[in-house]
Specification:
Largest sheet: 5 strands, mixed
Strand order of the largest sheet: 3-5-10-7-8
Oligomer: single chain
Structural class: mainly beta
Number of helices: 4
Radius of gyration: 37 Å
Distance between the termini: 140 Å
């Protein structure tokens, strides 16, 4: 009897366990626990770039350039959306498929669809598995009337703080011929870094359709209630890696339910940048100058275009150093070029970001600097140092001949000046004035290893002691004489260093003067 009772208890336990067990299989996916995946925008961008590069090798691209939608059908305006790819139903080349089926019927008397299916191969199925995950949703208002639904779009994790490093976009469609109204109910994001945009149509972040452009901060946008131009609308949101806030809440409905009475306006149309900045700057020889972004050290204002034209005496050139640099990526930029025409000869073109460019060296005595800021989002700005930069090149005679035209001046210096010069150099600098003119050579600074590294200058084109005014000068004192006027249109400076040691070197000016 006891054994029967034990068997009964065991069977009861087994039945309880089996009744609570649900196998995890594709036929029971409603009961599966799905991970809550929050992919960063940086990872998503990496995923998009890798997928785009792989598709490009087969001459394929994303639908309308949007990686979240699917693959553009080759040589067609149709798209195969990610859900439609590898679902057993062909999306692309449908006319070709129909023609193929007809030809199969004519040729073989029957139709075999297998020989006519083409676009959904294993490669496309693999790309589908690698498709980027999207933050956001597509909404459709099917019936536009006074009682139609209100779409509420909120930042991720609303009403809590939104997550960092996210990109999200939403779309809303109403019936054809209708319009949508937008009301910004709540808004608070990290100023200048976490941004929301709204526009007409379905192509997000399109400047031609935008109404609210990259808005951030604690205030609602200037256009906080408006109607769209048509029946379609997009909303995008981007947060950076750092601070976050509560975010935003939008209400979107058919205008038959709520009419904002005002059309959304594209801020780019008819909006000219403010040009009350920049200007002409004239510098003296050996003068340093500093240019800063408008309002520095405060963040620069939006919608500005500033152009500076900087001039030094003829024959001089400038070193351009970016001491501080932080601009909004891509949309705010700085360009630099030679001369006074901002359309040609750029040394630096539309540079932006948080890392300043390397030092620039002008080709002549005039440079232009152009700064542009967009309609939204500013950064700390920039500080640019401009310096009179001597010719320090020490090389073959063919590249050290300098023509000093009437009314011009030039500075030359030892290699690396004012840093210590290099060893084992023999530098010859040659100068030529216009016919009938003379050259004045003046040494402004001099320090060398005494008895080993020395300076000479004199008349003519060749560094020879018999034509020298000063020969073999070394040490920490200026030469005597410190300057001379050439007896013809030609003069030279020679600097010699040995194999060890190094000092600051020399700095000299050469002027054009009237002949006697």
């Amino acid at each position: 009897m006891e054994s029967c009772f034990e068997v009964l208890v065991l069977l009861l336990l087994v039945s309880v366990v089996l009744s609570s067990y649900e196998p995890i299989s594709r036929n029971n996916e409603d009961h599966r626990g799905k991970r809550d995946i929050h992919l960063s925008w940086k990872y998503t961008q990496f995923q998009i770039n890798a997928l785009s590069a792989d598709m490009a090798t087969y001459e394929l691209a994303f639908c309308d350039g949007n990686p979240f939608t699917g693959i553009q059908c080759p040589e067609e305006r149709l798209c195969a959306s990610w859900p439609d790819i590898c679902n057993g139903v062909q999306s692309c080349a449908l006319k070709y498929r129909d023609d193929c089926l007809n030809q199969s019927r004519i040729s073989y008397g029957n139709v075999d669809p297998r020989i006519c299916d083409g676009d959904e191969n294993e490669r496309w199925c693999g790309w589908k598995l690698s498709a980027p995950q999207r933050c956001g949703e597509d909404f459709v208002i099917k019936n536009g009337h006074a009682g139609s639904r209100v779409i509420r779009i909120m930042s991720p994790n609303w009403p809590g703080r939104y997550t960092n490093d996210r990109f999200c976009y939403w779309t809303v469609q109403a019936p054809e011929g209708h319009q949508l109204s937008v009301r910004v109910r709540k808004f608070k994001t990290e100023r200048n870094y976490d941004i929301m945009s709204i526009g007409n149509g379905l192509r997000y972040d399109d400047e031609n359709s935008v109404i609210v452009f990259r808005h951030s901060g604690s205030d609602k946008p200037a256009q906080k209630k408006f109607n769209t131009r048509g029946n379609k609308l997009w909303v995008s949101f981007r947060s950076d890696d750092w601070e976050n806030d509560k975010g935003f809440q939008l209400e979107i409905s058919d205008t038959l339910r709520y009419d904002a009475k005002v059309a959304g306006r594209n801020p780019f149309r008819g909006n000219q940048p403010i040009r009350e900045c920049g200007g002409d700057v004239t510098l003296e020889a050996n003068q340093d100058y500093q240019i800063t972004s408008p309002g520095y050290p405060e963040p620069y204002p939006d919608n500005h275009e500033c152009i500076w034209i900087v001039r030094m005496p003829l024959g001089r050139r400038m070193e351009i150093e970016f001491e501080i640099f932080e601009l909004e990526d891509e949309l705010d930029y700085i360009s630099v070029g030679n001369g006074d025409n901002t359309q040609i000869r750029p040394l630096l073109f539309k540079y932006s970001g948080r890392t300043g460019p390397a030092k620039l060296l002008s080709q002549g005595n005039v440079v232009w600097i152009k700064f542009f800021s967009s309609l939204a989002i500013s950064r700390d700005g920039f500080v640019i140092n401009l310096k009179d930069y001597p010719y320090r090149e020490c090389g073959p005679e063919s590249i050290t001949i300098k023509t000093i035209s009437e009314g011009t001046t030039i500075t030359v210096a030892s290699p690396n000046y004012p840093e210590p010069y290099e060893n084992n150099h023999q530098c010859l600098y040659r100068f030529q004035a216009d016919p009938g003119r003379r050259l004045l050579v003046r040494v402004l600074d001099f320090t060398s290893e005494r008895g080993y590294d020395w300076l000479a200058f004199g008349n003519g084109f060749f560094a020879e002691e018999e034509h020298a005014i000063v020969w073999g000068h070394s040490g920490r004192d200026l030469p005597d004489p410190v300057e001379f006027v050439s007896n013809s249109t030609e003069a030279w400076i020679y600097f010699n260093t040995d194999v060890v040691g190094g000092e600051r070197g020399f700095l000299a000016e050469v002027y054009d003067v009237a002949g006697s």
